[in-house]
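=== RUN LOG ===
request id: a7f3
mode: sequence -> structure
chains: 1
length: 370
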Amino acid sequence: MTCERCEEAAREGCRFCPECGEPLDSCTMCSEYARKGYEYCGRCGRCLANDKKEDFIVEKTVFITVICIATMLIIELACMLWYSADTYSYLRDKALGIFLLLPQMVTVGEIGGTALQLFWIFIVVAIVASCIVVAYQSRAILDRRSSKYIQGIRSTPAYWIALFFGAYLILSIAVSAIEGALGYRIIIPDGLPTGVSPESLFTYADAAVWEEVASRMVPIGVPMVIVAGLCGKRDCLKYLFGGFGMTRVALVLMVVSAIIFGMAHEGAWGASKVLPTVIGGLMMSYLFIRFGIHASIAYHFLLDYSAVIADAVGPEIFSFIFILVAITGFVAVAGVLKYAKEGISGIRDMPVWIHEKETKAEEPEEPEAE
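=== RESULT ===
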C-alpha cells in the first residue's frame, strides 16, 4: 500500500490501485496477521506460512543484491567523476551523432567541440541526479523495524533495480548459452572501448542517458503525453518523464519499446544480441513507467559502466561482486517470473488509458442548530 487510495481500493476488490497503479493484495489484513505471527489470516483464512518464508528470502536477497549494486554504483560514479575533466578535454576535437529509433537507429544530427563538452556535463549531472533520487526514494529499505517492511521495500526503485540486475545477469547468460548451442554468437563490435579511458567513460555514460531518451521517453513518454492530454490531464507533460504507473496502453508501449530497443542492437551486435536486449529493455521500460526516467537511467548506467569498473577495481573484486549477484540472481529470476505472472493475470483489472486520481469535493458543513 503506497498511497491513501490503496487500502480503499483493496477493500473494494481492485487488483490495482486506480491512483498510483500499485498491485494490491486480495486481503488487506493478511500482512497484519503475518506480522503478529499468525499462521492463517483471521479475515480470509489464507495460509501465511509461505508468505513469511517468501518474505524472508526476498528480504535477504534484496539486502545482498542492493549492497552489491550500491557498491558498484559508488565505484562507477567515482570513476566517472574522477576522470570527468580528462573526458571533457578528450571531447574537444570529437563529434557525436545524435540518433533516434524509428524503429531502426537513425542519425538525425551531430554535435562536436564545445557543444559536445557541454553535453558531457549534462550527462554527468543527469546520472548523478538520477542515482541520488533513486537513493532517496529507496530509503525505506533501511527501515527494517517497520511493520510493513516488505511492502515498503517492494515499492522502492532500488528493490526493482536489484531484482532486475540479478535476474538479467542469469537470464542473459541462459539465453546466450542456448543461442550458442544453436550456433549463434554475439558479435563484439570493432573498436568497442573498454577499461578506464575517456572514450569508455563517455560512450557508456552517453548510452545510459541518451538511449533512455530515445528508447523510453520518445516511444513511451511522448505517446503517454498525448494520451494524457486527450484524457483532459492539464499536467500531461509530466508523463514525458515516466512514473505514471502501469496501464494497458503503457503495457503495449513497454513491449513495443523493448522490441525496438532490441532490434536497434542487431546491426552492430548480431541477431544473438536481440533477445537479451529485449529482456533488458522490458526491465528498463518497467522502471521508467513505474518510477520515472531517473530509475531507468540509474539501471542502464549500472549495467553499462560495469565494463569500466572491471578494469578500475581489478578482476578479483569485480568477479567477487558478480558472483554474489549471480547467486542471488536465481532468486531474482523466480521473483521476476512471479511478478510477471501476477501482472499478466491482472491485465483485465488495469486502467486502460491513464490512472484517474479520484478526488472528492468537500461538502460544506451545515451550521449547527442553535
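=== NOTES ===
Confidence is low (pLDDT under 50) at residues 358-370.
The chain is about 60% helix and 5% strand.
=== END ===
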